[in-house]
Amino acid sequence: MTDVVGIPGTVCSPAVFDPVAALVPGVRAVSWMTAPGPWTVPAVAERVARELTAPVVLVGHSTGGAIATTLAAAHPDLVVGLVLVDTGAHMRRHGDVDAIIDRFAAQWGREALSAVLDRSFATPPPADVHADLLAYAEAVPSAAGVEVLRSQRDLDLTDVLPTIACPAAVVHGVHDRARSAAEAEELAALLPDAELFWAECGHTPVFEAPGVVAAAIRSVLDRAS
């Protein structure tokens, strides 16, 4: 059985992958933000790669998508499939990233983190789930949030994506307030072997629409076999 490794977005708990793990055997998510730095996208990609003992399917959500793409390009022998969830080739259309970085640098804490979490869902998660997600975010070092977003802001994967030959899927929540449908279409067009999946949800389909993400993973696994 091929393992499926989930890479969450910035300040996002690995627990957001639990609904997908309930549907697809072998799914596990990494907590890259609570591990020691550095927290640039390439550095995190290399740390995740070092933990892999066999080829996997990577599922990258948001910032995790940039990490997964970077890892897949650098280590094609370790990645048999790639699923990118509500992310993009670059952040040029992510208009508020500088404002988020500035707020994280100046006002890291419950209010700033809660605002980022709240806009990650089209429908708020249950109160107990929100509390758990916020508690995870508060345990993340502020330097991690600032460093990785600066790194992602300055990263353009437009020329990297066409070099990734493994089967891929792009999943996009149509009510995402951070990333546009056009960004998902661009991402799918740049990948040589990608299928595009739409989900009736916000920025976090791994939690909000796990059935769609599970279908994308199964599609990649089928094409990789």
From TrEMBL:
GO MF terms held by the record: catalytic activity
GO cellular component: membrane
Coiled coil regions in record: none
Residue ranges of domain AB hydrolase-1 in the record: 27-216
Species, as recorded: Actinomycetospora corticicola
Record Pfam families: Abhydrolase_6
Protein name, as recorded: Pimeloyl-ACP methyl ester carboxylesterase
Origin: domain of life: Bacteria
Matches recorded under InterPro entries: AB_hydrolase_1 (IPR000073), AB_hydrolase_fold (IPR029058), AB_hydrolase_sf (IPR050266)
